[in-house]
């Protein structure tokens, strides 16, 4: 008799459903957070534990494998250009949809669940005091070990790229160093597989706490915003990223099916970090060179937040409409420019989306207190925008590989199809 095997995606889905059920049954019960939160926190800590070693090792191996700083510079320039184009398109789409549907009109400001936003206000003030020059200087670490301890991903990427170029430059003498980081990379991917066994329990705990804490009341009072944001995210995912994928010879639906395990986990945990190692591994299997994958995807986690900026554009105009503030075309252009800048400068900040939103509201004359009105459903919206962020970054590796002339669409489609058939059988 054949032994029944339940895949990781199915296990995560079961954990997700059970978490929702527990949250609904024990709504507002303090016991849910008391008993479940440690399991959710443990899973997130396990993920954070392995992300930095994987980013460092794979980025150094990838950059050293390109052979020269000139190649890295060319790839970096193309990558940043692509990220800027696609995120700007996401912001403009959000602004257009918010103007068309006007979901903020008629919403009762007293009906929403108010949340404490003091932590975001403090972070926003600290970020606001930084000049543009200071923001860029922050990318260069003064103490690598401090940056590693704080999880400052941009500073870590900067050092890893330079170190990788240095390893490539010294030729044969750099081979032992390269072999060390290659072995480290393989070992960390093995650790990832161990950590992922805990994922269903982590998802169950995180979702259970979220539903129990916020319930359905806040969702109903802000239903129009939630529906519009999710509709916009789905449109961007299927139409915009679908068009980009088609240019590269990739079917977006097959791509999403290929990535479904990672997308489901990212959706459940509201964290792209949880699947970073697995996404990189899958993109390599798809035919994207390690040098491109290890550079593009980590950089995308800071520079290519399509889902986040789309949400921020809609939320900003939603709050303006709630307060009855009519924004001029000039003010909306200012909003677009602000989101283009702040979404990059605060990428590594905890609660980044709300912090960026808070920084943006002041520029268009919306009271910052409005953030408390939508903060209650931010976790629900975060789940959706995380999926779009993740898909956009994974697809970016394909785009850059195609741009560099090293991606085979036919072979990629074959791998996606075979991968799906193996899971079904």
From TrEMBL:
GO terms for cellular component: plasma membrane. The keyword Transport applies. PROSITE patterns: NA_DICARBOXYL_SYMP_1, NA_DICARBOXYL_SYMP_2. It is found in: Cell membrane. GO terms for biological process: dicarboxylic acid transport. One of its GO terms (molecular function) is symporter activity. It is a multi-pass membrane protein. Signal peptide: none annotated. Keywords: Cell membrane, Membrane, Symport, Transmembrane, Transmembrane helix, Transport. The chain crosses the membrane at residues 7-27, 47-68, 80-101, 153-171, 183-207, 227-253, 286-303, 346-366. This is Glutamate:protein symporter. It comes from Priestia koreensis.
């Amino acid at each position: 008799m054949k032994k029944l095997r339940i895949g990781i995606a199915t296990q995560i889905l079961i954990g997700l459903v059970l978490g929702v059920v527990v949250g609904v049954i024990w709504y507002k019960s303090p016991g849910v957070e008391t008993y479940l939160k440690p399991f959710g926190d443990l899973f997130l800590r396990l993920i954070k534990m392995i992300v930095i070693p994987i980013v460092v090792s794979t980025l150094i191996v990838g950059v050293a494998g390109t052979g020269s700083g000139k190649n890295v510079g060319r790839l970096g320039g193309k990558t940043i250009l692509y990220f800027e184009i696609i995120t700007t398109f996401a912001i403009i789409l959000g602004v257009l949809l918010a103007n068309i549907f006007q979901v903020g009109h008629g919403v009762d400001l007293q009906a929403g669940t108010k949340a404490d936003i003091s932590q975001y206000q403090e972070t926003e003030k600290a970020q606001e005091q930084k000049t543009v020059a200071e923001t860029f200087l922050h990318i260069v670490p003064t103490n690598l070990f401090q940056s590693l301890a704080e999880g400052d991903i941009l500073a870590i990427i900067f050092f890893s790229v330079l170190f990788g170029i240095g390893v490539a430059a010294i030729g044969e003498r750099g081979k032992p160093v390269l072999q060390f980081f290659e072995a480290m990379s393989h070992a960390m991917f093995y650790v990832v597989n161990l950590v992922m066994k805990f994922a269903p329990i982590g998802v169950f705990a995180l979702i259970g706490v979220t539903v129990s804490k916020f319930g359905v009341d806040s969702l109903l009072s802000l239903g129009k915003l939630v529906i519009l944001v999710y509709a916009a995210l789905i449109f961007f995912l299927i139409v915009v990223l679908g068009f980009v994928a088609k240019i590269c010879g990739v079917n977006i639906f097959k791509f999403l099916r290929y990535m479904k395990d990672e997308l489901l986990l990212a959706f459940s945990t509201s964290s792209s970090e949880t699947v970073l190692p697995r996404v990189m591994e899958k993109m390599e299997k798809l035919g994207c060179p390690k040098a491109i994958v290890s550079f593009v995807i980590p950089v995308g986690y800071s520079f290519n937040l399509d889902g986040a900026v789309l949400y921020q554009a809609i939320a900003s105009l939603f709050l303006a409409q709630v307060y009855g503030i009519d924004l001029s075309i000039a003010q909306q252009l200012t909003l677009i420019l602000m989101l283009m800048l702040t979404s990059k400068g605060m990428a590594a900040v905890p609660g980044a989306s709300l912090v960026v939103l808070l920084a943006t509201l002041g520029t268009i004359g919306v009271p910052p207190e409005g953030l408390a009105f939508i903060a209650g459903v931010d976790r629900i919206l975060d789940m959706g925008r995380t999926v779009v962020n993740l898909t956009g970054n994974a697809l970016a590796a394909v785009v850059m590989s195609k741009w560099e002339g090293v991606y085979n669409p036919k072979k990629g489609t074959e791998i996606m199809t075979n991968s799906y058939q193996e899971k079904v059988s």
